[in-house]
Amino acid sequence: MMLCENNQIVEGQSYDIAVIGAGAVGMSVAYGLTKLGQTVCVVDEGDIGFRASRGNFGLIWVQGKGARHRAYGRWTLKAASQWPDLAAELLNQTGVDVGLSNPGGFTICLDEQELQARVELLDAMRDLVGEQFEYQVLSPAQTQERLPAVGSEIAGSVFCPLDGHVSPLMLLRALFKAHTTAGGAWMVGQAVSAIEPQLSGGYLIRAGDRSVGARKIVLAAGLGNRALAAPLGLEVPIRPVRGQILITERMAPFLHYPTLHVRQTSDGTVQIGDSKEEVGLDDQTTLIQLSRIAQRASHCFPCLAGVNVVRSWGALRVMSQDGYPIYSESLLHSGAYVVTCHSGITLAPLHAGPIADWIASEVATGGLSDFSLSRFHVQTH
After folding, report:
1. Would you say residue 13 has pLDDT above 90?
2. Pairing state between β 210-219 and 336-340
3. d(CA 356, CA 89)
4. How far is CA 56 from the centre of its chain?
5. What is the CB neighbour count within 10 angstroms for residue 114?
6. Is Oxidoreductase set as a keyword in this record (predicted)?
7. What is the pLDDT of residue 66?
8. Which residue of 8, 85, 114, 194 sits 20 to 30 Å from the alpha carbon of 378, by its own alpha carbon?
């Protein structure tokens, strides 16, 4: 493969696979494909794009995912179980510690109605997925035994030993380094303007004044997938859902487990998030939501009252019509794949594993049909 020293593409070079999108989903797939010996180029528009991978909460979260969809619950369980292997593999190959911690996770409930709704959700998930999905319902006193800093006025909590968290930024760094170290290339800085199927097979991807050829393409561009996929006969029903996040100044360690709304990072800062807003492509923050988020966090952990907030931002989740991942190949254009989900951190081991295997081999592993576009009856035939 002809590469520049920094692994940028050489004009006119062709690859086995081009992955469009360098977020957690795209880089996980790209890394998995390079491990399989494929020549891979990652194409990304750069910082002009929406960045779900830099604005997410970093949770590896099982509880609640799949409460109404057996395949998704089992897919999530499988991903969480493979995270220790992925973290160790990336550390060995790149020297980058992604900050994996998987002690289990808590959902703290402020009133009885909220607690009951949570228990009903997890009961439904266990009924669908089976006994391998574990959780415990804890009283306020039992919660405080595990989380000494928790507030005294909570209704209780739910603990799942399968949950954990990781540093999203260190994960991206490790995936990118592993991809490039293995010979993977990249083309970054301009949005993809066209994907042109070639008469001789394969695709030409144009981005500004540059282009790259590939035998196959993987659309992993988050919210950009909808527009990119349509000319290839793939109608991808996704929408943005905004989440707002607060970051505090560094604090002495007080929270050794991730919770659904509050987690303390390895550097001592506290990440707080608790919003799901249908506001289109608006990724700004709002005072009303940030105030509500801060109030809930202080109710759960009174030690946060008066702590300085040093950063805040809004980010857009990539949400499918039914909330579950989409893995599909175009029926009109062989070798054109779409990979999208709103759980790119949790599902990273599977995107680097079975999904990469499927794209490279063109043989779908068991269960992938549950996540194809055919469930929406919208793929063009």
Report:
1. no
2. parallel
3. 16
4. 8
5. 15
6. yes
7. 83
8. 194
- Say what the alpha-carbon torsion angle 50, 321, 373, 52 is, to the nearest 10 degrees: 20
Q: Is residue 63 part of a domain?
A: no
Whether residue 251 sits in one domain with residue 229: no
What's the pLDDT tens digit per position in 253-281? 999 999 999 999 989 999 999 889 999 98
Place of tokens 């009924």: 127
Please give the structure tokens belonging to residue 113: 């109605």
Of the candidates 40, 46, 48, which has an alpha carbon nearest to the alpha carbon of residue 9?
40
Examine residue 91 and state whether it is found in any structural domain, yes or no: no
Among 29, 8, 380, smallest CA distance to 207 is for: 8
For 102-148, what is each residue's pLDDT tens digit? 999 999 999 999 999 999 999 999 999 998 999 999 999 999 999 99
Quick one: pLDDT band at residue 55, thresholds 50, 70, 90? Answer: low
Tally of domains in the chain: 3
**Angle of CA points 19, 165, 220, to nearest 5°:** 15
DSSP 249: P
In a domain, 73, yes or no: no
